[in-house]
Amino acid sequence: MYYIEDENFVIIPLSFVIFYRASLENEGRVRFANEFSISDSLFGELKELIKEKGTKKIVAIDFDRVTYPSKILEELKNFEEKVIFFNIHGEILRNKIKENLPLLNWGEKEDICFLNGIITGNIIEAYKNKFSFIYKEMYAAILCDIKDPCEQNTPYPLESSGLYSNMYINVKKLFLDTRAYYLVLYGMAIEAHRMGEFDGFISSSKNGALLAAMLGAMLNKKSVYIQGVGPKYSMKFGNIQNEIKRGKSYIYIFDFVCTGTELKVISALINSNDAYLNGGIGFAQYDDSEKQKMFMNDKIRCLITTEEANLKYILAGNKGDILKLMSILK
Question: What is the pLDDT along the chain (330 residues), one digit of tens a residue?
């Protein structure tokens, strides 16, 4: 079972665990659900993990988007290990847990509860600062793993924007790590759900097209790949009309965004064909200026930013400028 462990906690992102297992077992037929149910076999593994880790650490289980067969949690009544359930959303789930485990200690907002222990201020603070952002931490680790630093002080040219950078976010590496790839897909699918009704995904890069194709299969949505979008737009207008349907709404899918050049072009293309852009979803973004933050509004969502991942990612218009900035960072 996949979990994250530090000196105090063992944290289990349960809905992702269920989604990831189902995806591996049903390769080619990956589906995303609004709720994920705990199976008997998974609950058996969960109990063993609690027994193994819970004597020395607190086992924290994320219940966001999780449901379970009636009374299955009653088996935890005789456990002595400390367990936290967090991200408990919805009255139905909350009442179900209270019925199964009436002796739980609940937080003030009842989105967190403690089995075999008392919720202290320190635990609540840990919940706010760590549990609530556990996926951010995982996405940040992935972003750091797939970056390629410059070699021999040679800046990376970014073809999509015509700029230079001190590192390259090599999203192709993401596709080589199955768990990281599915974790990103999981997060992007959640963001797509939050955007409401739409008709399809649209992308303009090869990496974005791979993500959009898988998301389309997961959510049963059409995926459109528009080639040649960047500083020099090369696609014929007639081809656009064949792909972008009048009156339909789309979500733009991208891997990593620096200045948003491609997104601006795609938005104009969709609008010119009397269609609608609901928003955009990407894995990561460069976030280092007020101008960029203004552009990345609430309809353009990324799972992680270079700032959140503590990456010193910089951009410049020419090699001389980027070399100067790189020397300052040393």
Answer: 899 998 889 999 999 999 999 988 886 677 888 899 999 999 999 999 999 998 899 999 999 999 998 889 999 999 999 999 999 999 999 999 999 999 999 988 899 999 988 888 888 888 888 888 889 999 999 999 999 887 767 787 776 667 888 888 999 999 999 999 999 999 999 999 988 899 999 988 889 999 999 999 999 999 988 876 554 444 444 445 567 888 899 999 999 987 777 777 788 888 878 888 888 999 999 875 554 444 445 688 899 999 999 998 888 877 666 676 666 655
DSSP states of 232-297:
S----HHHHHHHSPTT-EEEEEEEEESS-HHHHHHHHHHHHTT-EEEEEEEEEE---SHHHHHHS-
Q: pTM to 2 decimals? A: 0.88
CA atoms of 255 and 81, how far apart (whole Å): 41
How far, in Å, CA of 211 to CA of 186, rounded?
11
Q: Are 59 and 14 in contact (CB under 8 A)?
A: no
Q: What is the helix (H) or strand (E) element at residue 49, kind and residue range? A: helix 40-53
| Structure tokens given for 201 | 């995904």
Q: In what order do the strands lie in the sheet with 156-158?
A: 156-158, 163-165, 315-316
276-285 sheet: strands from edge to edge: 222-225, 200-203, 249-257, 276-285, 300-305
Q: Single out the residue of 240, 181, 190 nearest to residue 211, CA to CA.
A: 181
Q: How many residues does the chain have?
A: 330
Structure-derived torsion over alpha carbons of residues 305, 306, 308, 311, reported in degrees to the nearest 10? 170
Residue 10 pairs in a beta bridge with: 5, 59
Tokens of 63: 């219940």
3-state class (DSSP) for residue 2: coil
